[in-house]
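Design request, tokens follow.
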């Protein structure tokens, strides 16, 4: 999960990341679909190991791209917790910061970047009570890998940690098949 407040690492060049992710997006998506349809026996163990490697190399404060271009989904528990933290009612919180996406049936941020992102430090002003969706992002090992490949296919274009995770997974699987 995104560490948020961690040791400071290099700032990620988001322009270069976007270019690289677009160049490899098709092959990574193909790889993830192929892996989803034909998973290795030790895929879960491999994912756990790679998750540790990725987070040893990645610091969300050097990026915050998820906060800049995506919106978390807000469950009622999230709204209640954050509105209490901000000393406002849930209704006032929703009225000020959220909209209801009828298609997705989710509460989302009205704006991007996220209203709680400090653009200078990449820190979240509600980090202690942030939405569960943010706390778990990018969901690298949230569920069994084959059940969550669709999320990785989406997040490789937004999250350098997901990109790195898929890149390492692809390398590891290719090596194991030799």
């Amino acid at each position: 999960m995104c560490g948020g407040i961690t040791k400071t690492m290099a700032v990620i060049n988001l322009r270069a990341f976007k270019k690289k992710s677009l160049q490899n997006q098709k092959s990574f998506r193909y790889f993830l679909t192929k892996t989803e349809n034909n998973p290795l026996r030790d895929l879960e163990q491999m994912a756990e190991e790679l998750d540790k490697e990725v987070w040893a190399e990645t610091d969300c404060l050097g990026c915050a791209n998820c906060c800049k271009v995506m919106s978390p989904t807000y469950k009622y528990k999230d709204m209640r917790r954050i509105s209490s933290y901000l000393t406002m009612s849930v209704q006032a919180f929703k009225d000020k910061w959220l909209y209801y996406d009828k298609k997705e049936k989710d509460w989302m941020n009205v704006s991007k970047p996220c209203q709680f992102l400090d653009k200078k430090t990449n820190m979240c002003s509600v980090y202690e009570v942030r939405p569960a969706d943010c706390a778990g992002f990018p969901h690298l090992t949230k569920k069994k890998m084959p059940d969550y490949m669709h999320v990785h296919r989406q997040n490789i274009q937004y999250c350098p940690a997901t990109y790195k995770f898929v890149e390492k997974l692809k390398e590891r699987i290719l090596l194991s098949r030799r």
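Comment from the thread starter after seeing the answer: thanks! The two ends are 31 Å apart (CA to CA).
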